[in-house]
């Protein structure tokens, strides 16, 4: 979720929510802001886009829910009519929308309270930094939503974490390609991996990986020593092979990266692929079939492909 907020103290708020195509988000947000919105937020309104909270950069959502908050003394009916009229002028006739009156709250606290520790697998937890661990003796990954993609809440990240949590990766090396927050690299080290390289095309994600490695040193001192984050072209050894290669990205991107990923997988190594919808899985397995035998796990309408190199 992204938002811009103007600090205001009110007893109540008018919430004006519209669902639009992605190309309308910027002009609509600018319009709502210009007519006095105290806050404008955007979130994914589709059910098939792969995107978690807090990814740095511009989301690739196709359908977007735009929510504007207005002070209680605002003429919300006039705002509604003006907004819909402006959209009609550019050829948009029917826009799903709602109006609602909200009691004032500590919005930051509401956002923080929306995240809670998540248990994954046998004894792995993802714990926001402001929460206490539920099980002190378990493996607890400290992670703040807001730094980069990968909080454990999405089905694909959850499946990867669940699989990693059940492995004994002692002495193994790991490449997390498209690492986002670095959560999968951190989980790998907590599961015994000797070393993990996290690679992402976004400098903010690389920075987030480094920060999260430091944040989790208290749980496993090896994390800051054994985990490194890089932009793709900065990887020190571009032909290095790893025992486990993870790509939690998108099906189309995985296909594009095929010739990058396969050489990094050691003989008899494992390739973990996800970010893949169920109907896309056959296409991915065929593309990698010359080198790997796959087993499939499924959660919701997403799949995790576990490839064993022949």
Give an overview of the whole structure:
The chain is an alpha/beta fold and 310 residues long. It has two domains: 2-111, Alpha-Beta Plaits; 152-309, Vaccinia Virus protein VP39 (Rossmann fold). 28% of the residues lie in helices and 31% in strands. It has helices at residues 25-34, 76-89, 107-113, 155-165, 183-190, 203-215, 222-226, 251-256, 258-261, 281-288; strands at 2-5, 12-21, 39-44, 63-71, 97-103, 118-120, 124-127, 139-142, 173-177, 195-199, 227-230, 242-248, 265-277, 292-299, 302-309. The strands form three sheets. It has a seven-stranded mixed beta sheet with strand order 11-10-9-12-13-15-14, with helices on both faces. The protein has a five-stranded antiparallel beta sheet with strand order 1-3-4-2-5, covered by helices on one side. β9, α5 and β10 form a beta-alpha-beta unit. The radius of gyration is 22 Å and the shape is globular. The relative contact order is 0.10.
Write the layout of secondary structure elements.
Layout: E1 2-5, E2 12-21, H1 25-34, E3 39-44, E4 63-71, H2 76-89, E5 97-103, H3 107-113, E6 118-120, E7 124-127, E8 139-142, H4 155-165, E9 173-177, H5 183-190, E10 195-199, H6 203-215, H7 222-226, E11 227-230, E12 242-248, H8 251-256, H9 258-261, E13 265-277, H10 281-288, E14 292-299, E15 302-309
Parallel strand pairs: 7-8, 9-10, 9-12, 10-11, 12-13
Antiparallel strand pairs: 1-3, 2-4, 2-5, 3-4, 6-7, 13-15, 14-15
Helix pairs in contact: 4-5
């Amino acid at each position: 979720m992204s938002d811009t907020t103007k600090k205001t103290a009110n007893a109540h708020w008018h919430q004006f929510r519209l669902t639009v195509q992605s190309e309308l988000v910027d002009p609509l947000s600018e319009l709502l802001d210009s007519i006095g919105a105290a806050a404008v937020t955007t979130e994914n309104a589709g059910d098939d886009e792969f995107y978690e909270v807090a990814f740095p950069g511009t989301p690739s959502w196709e359908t977007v829910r735009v929510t504007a908050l207005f002070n209680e003394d605002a003429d919300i009916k006039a705002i509604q009519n003006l907004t819909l009229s402006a959209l009609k002028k550019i050829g948009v006739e029917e826009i799903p929308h709602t109006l609602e009156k909200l009691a004032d709250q500590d919005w930051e606290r509401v956002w923080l309270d929306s995240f809670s520790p998540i248990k994954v697998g046998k004894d792995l937890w993802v714990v926001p930094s402001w929460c206490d661990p539920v099980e002190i003796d378990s493996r607890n990954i400290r992670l703040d939503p807001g730094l980069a993609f990968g909080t454990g809440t999405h089905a694909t990240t959850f499946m990867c974490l669940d699989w990693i949590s059940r492995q004994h990766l002692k002495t193994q090396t790991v490449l997390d390609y498209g690492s986002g927050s670095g959560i999968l690299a951190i989980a790998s080290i907590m599961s015994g991996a000797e070393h993990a390289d996290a690679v992402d095309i976004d400098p903010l994600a690389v920075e987030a990986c480094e920060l999260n490695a430091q944040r989790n040193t208290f749980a496993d001192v090896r994390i800051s020593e054994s985990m490194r984050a890089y932009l793709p072209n900065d990887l020190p050894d571009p032909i290095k092979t790893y025992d486990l290669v993870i790509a939690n990205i998108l099906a189309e991107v995985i296909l594009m990266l095929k010739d990058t990923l396969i050489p990094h997988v050691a003989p008899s190594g494992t390739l973990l692929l996800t970010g893949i919808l169920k109907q896309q899985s056959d296409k991915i397995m065929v593309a990698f079939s010359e080198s790997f035998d796959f087993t499939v796990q499924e959660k919701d309408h997403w799949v995790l492909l576990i490839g064993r190199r022949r």
